[in-house]
Structures are given as C-alpha cells and as structure tokens.
Specification:
It is a single chain. The chain is α+β, with helices and mostly antiparallel strands. 61% of the residues lie in helices and 15% in strands. The chain has two domains: 270 residues, no CATH class; 79 residues. It has a six-stranded antiparallel β-sheet with strand order 1-2-3-4-5-6.
Length: 386
Amino acid sequence: MFNLIGRYIFREITVPFFIILFVLTFVLLTGRIFQIADLVVNKGISFWSIANLIAHLLPNFFLFTLPIALLTSILIGMGRLSTDNEITALKASGVGLLQLFRPVALMTAITFVLTFLIGFFLVPHSNFSTKKLLFELAQQNVTIGIKEKTFNANFTGLVFYADKIPQSGEYMENVIVADRRLLGEASTVIARKAYLVADTKTMIVKLRFLDGSIHTVSPDLNNYRRIDFKKYDIQLDLSYALILISEEAKSSSEMTFTELIEKRKNPKLSPSVVRELSIEAHKKFSMPLSCIFFALLAFPLGIRNHRAVKSRGFGLGLLIASAYYLLRIGGEAFVETGYLPLLVGVWLPNLLFFLLGIVFLIAAHYERPVSYIIGVRKLLKLSMHK
C-alpha cells in the first residue's frame, strides 16, 4: 500500500500516538482514582466490579484522547523528521507534499473511524450501562454496609440500626431508624423486620419495614404521635456511591442518534431540552471530524524546522486541543442558553480549525510564511509604498 518512505513516516506517527493515548487516558482515569479507591477500601466493592466500571468509563475517555493523541503524534513525528532534515532531503529527492501526507491521511482516517464508532455506538451504550452498573454497586454497597448491632449513617438524614441479620443477608430483624430528613420534625421507625427493595427501571432503592410503628415528637417536645403500620417504605439516598444516579430512564448523553432524533419530535419538550438534544446529535458527527481538522493543522506545523521536538510537539498539541475544546464548550453553552444558533455554536470550532489547516497547508506547499499567504505582508508593502 505504501512504499518504504510511507511506511517509515507512518511508523514515526503511530509509536508516539499509542504512547500519548495511553498517557492521556491514564491521566483522565486518575481523576476517578480516589473515588474508585474509596469503593474498594471503604465500600467493599470487588476488584472485578471495579474493572468492569473502568471498562465502561473508557469509551468516554477515548472520545477525547484519540483526536488529541493524533494531533500530538503528528506534531512529534513530522517534527522529528523535519529537525533531522529528513523532510528537506525527501523534498530534494522529488518527494512532494502530497506523498508525505498520505501516511498521515491513513492514520487520520483510522482515528476518525474509531472515534466515530465510539461516539456513535459505544458511548451511549456505555453511559447507560455505567448508570445501571453504579446502581448495582450502590445496591451492593447498601447490603455490605449494613452490619448487625452497628449504627449506620451512610444514608443522608438517616441513622440505621439492625439487631440481627441472617447469613443470607436477605432481611434484618428488630430494626430502628432515626429519620431526620424533615426539617423541624424528627421521627423514629421501629419494625420487627426490614429488607431492601430495588427498582431497576427507576433506579431507586427502598428500605421496606414490616410490622412496626413510627414515633414522632414535635420540636418543642409537647406533642407525641405514633402510627402503627403493616408495611412502610423509606427511599434511600445513594448519592454517596460514585456518581449521583439519575432517576431518568436515559439522559441525552445515553441516547443513540436515532433515539435523539425521535425524542426531538416530541412537541411537549421545552426549547432548552430540544437544544440539548440537538447539540448531542450534532456532536456525534462534529467530534469525530475534529480528527481530520487536527491533522490538517498538525501536518504543516510539524514539518517546520524547530528544536526540542517531543516537548514542543506535546506542548503545542495540548495548547491547540485546549483552544479547540474551550471553543466547543463555549459555543455549546451559548447554544444551550439560546444566544447562538445551533450550527454556529457547534460547528464554528471545526470551521475555524479547517480554515487554519488549509492556510498552513498552502503555506507549507509554497514554502512561504503564513502571513504572506493570507496577504498581511502584501498589505504592509502596499501601505509603505503609499
């Protein structure tokens, strides 16, 4: 498919690509390390459950790290060839800019396809699966965290005590719960038996009491009320788990493109929700396309002569990626608030980087400064003559 030179350039890009991809993904993962460590050490979650959770988080990370790794690896790989004067030697031997760009284009196409597949299929599935997994872990955490003859305060506004729990852990006997969730009024629930009830559809965990009573005392201690019951439910707050679990069936980030389009057709949706769904639908195309625009910009920047190739290429890559994602975040925020049209807010960063890439490619082809290509020097000369 490629001659020796093409394979050589392709290898110069792929090696730093995988290294940078690993480093960036690991850095993003370290942001969750303390939460994951808390799940292992304090919550008793198994190693395989944690590994499963990390596997569900990776597609979201790859959606960002793949384009950045491509951008930085092109800057480093082409920069190394330029610094060692190999680009100059190849041009002197009759190798044109298009031939040099072919292996870069192949790497860009591979990264684009991977990013598109991850964003279009894997991310919605992994986001929804992560929510369900977190619910299961939180439910498991509830079962593990409750010990007999021990006061448990993991639940917001509740202090829980169970006198006896069988080895199966299916229920608890002689249960006392102090409920302080209502401001100005505290109540105590005493029950003969209690067990957990989980609803996987609404992702709610309830503590169900059987054969007990609710004791309530007014703040001034002048009034006392008792209510006997056969069955009584308390909804548990599981937000202490890893992430606050939403009770919605699916959020916009958990929907496929088809689901987003179908939900947008609902006439009862508010304009803000429609804008949110529209942004998420456009992102499934705009984010993978950033790979192409990054490559168009990185290739001409990389073949310019400079020193300290790796450090400069890595720093420049992070700077360009930061500018791009800041523009994206800002544009999407303005679209969500209604200050910018959808197409402008979502696609403007891609358009700007596409134009910059074309300008730098033309400058590299003619071996002229960028300021000359965009006409700045010509304007300065004309003004000086006048």
